[in-house]
Design brief:
- It is a single chain.
- The protein is an alpha+beta fold.
- The chain contains 10 helices and 6 strands; from the N terminus they run αβββααβαββαααααα.
- The strands form 2 sheets. Strands 3-4-5-6 form a 4-stranded antiparallel beta sheet. It has a two-stranded parallel sheet with strand order 1-2.
- A hairpin with an 8-residue loop joins strand 5 (125-138) and strand 6.
- Helix 6 crosses helix 9 (236-263) and helix 9 (236-263) runs antiparallel to helix 10 (269-303).
- The longest helix has 35 residues, at 269-303.
- The protein is globular, with a radius of gyration of 21 Å.
- The chain starts with 6 loop residues before the first helix and ends with a helix.
Length: 304
């Protein structure tokens, strides 16, 4: 379902339309079963654009393209029939057990990605990525399009980190773009612009000002500063992709924060100044971590 409403507004309107139903907001979280079979459950999650290549486990051709980034993002969201979302489950959940059987293993082996190890970020949880294919490609004239197939994939902690950072980068880019376009639109109301500023500030604050175990800082600790590659040498290519997305995220945050500073007003200036300091530190931490990791592992890879 394509909606111009925010996730919160969409859930609110859906609840108003179905007041006796239980709306399960499960974006990025474990889907909770109430156990009440007579209760109507409506699950709502935000999906991200994907591609048929990624559904098949291949690299998206757009990711390796050197064309203009804005044109690339436009093409990525044109004639789209594949979408993706992820959920977190307990390691012993039926969904995880089923996927383990499909892999024909009890130790979570995932082929070229190396052996599955429990995430240092979520020790007792596993992440399942779901790809859905729609009956008709977006954009289209229909707002509701049936899903014709679903494919579930059990992610290793590293794969889950890469998916998460890609999703966050897409959210930051979209929030920044919407606010940038609003300033040139005479039809955009003051209330609408305030909502876009708030939306961007939430993405910036939730990404920049995080704890040591969250977001990029958590990935640095788990995959770059640790001996992860010593234990999982087959994941070298995915680590490189993660580093690229880390650098991309700091650049997107820098652009988004600059735009936020232009529109936030005096009331939010202290928050903007705080985020500037935190972003400078985050950018430095990313650069140092990537440099240290490259220095540690690149000579070894070149020798082999």
């Amino acid at each position: 379902y394509r909606s111009w409403l925010s996730y919160r507004e969409f859930c609110k309107k859906l609840q108003e339309k179905h007041p006796r139903a239980k709306i399960q907001k499960n974006t990025g979280d474990k889907f909770k079963d109430s156990g009440n079979q007579t209760e109507q459950m409506v699950g709502v999650t935000t999906v991200f654009t994907s591609s048929l290549q990624k559904v098949e486990g291949k690299q998206d051709s757009w990711d390796t393209s050197e064309m203009n980034e804005r044109y690339k993002q436009y093409l990525k969201k044109t004639n789209v029939q594949a979408f993706t979302f992820k959920r977190t489950y307990a390691a012993n959940a039926p969904e995880v057990t089923t996927l383990m059987r499909q892999h024909g293993t009890d130790n979570m082996g995932l082929g070229d990605e190396g052996s599955f190890v429990k995430s240092t970020l979520h020790p007792n949880m596993c992440v399942v990525q779901t790809f859905v294919l729609t009956e008709e490609a977006f954009p289209c004239a229909r707002r509701r399009v049936p899903v014709v197939s679903r494919t579930n994939k059990l992610l290793s902690p590293l794969q889950a980190a890469l998916v998460s950072i890609n999703e966050k980068n897409e959210q930051i880019l979209e929030a920044t773009k919407q606010l940038a376009l609003a300033q040139f639109s005479s039809a955009e109301s003051k209330v609408g612009t305030s909502r876009l500023i708030e939306q961007l500030s939430q993405h910036l604050n939730g990404t920049i000002d995080t704890g040591a175990q969250e977001g990029i800082r958590g990935y640095i600790r788990s995959f770059l500063e640790s001996d992860y590659l010593d234990k999982q040498p087959a994941d070298g290519k995915t680590i490189v992709e993660l580093k690229v997305q880390m650098k991309t995220q700091t650049k997107l945050l820098d652009k988004g924060l600059a735009l936020f500073g232009e529109h936030c007003g005096e009331q939010l200036k202290p928050m903007h100044n705080h985020l500037l300091v935190m972003l400078a530190k985050l950018t430095k931490d990313v650069a140092v971590a990537i440099h240290s990791s490259d220095k540690r592992y690149l000579p070894r890879r070149q020798n082999t």
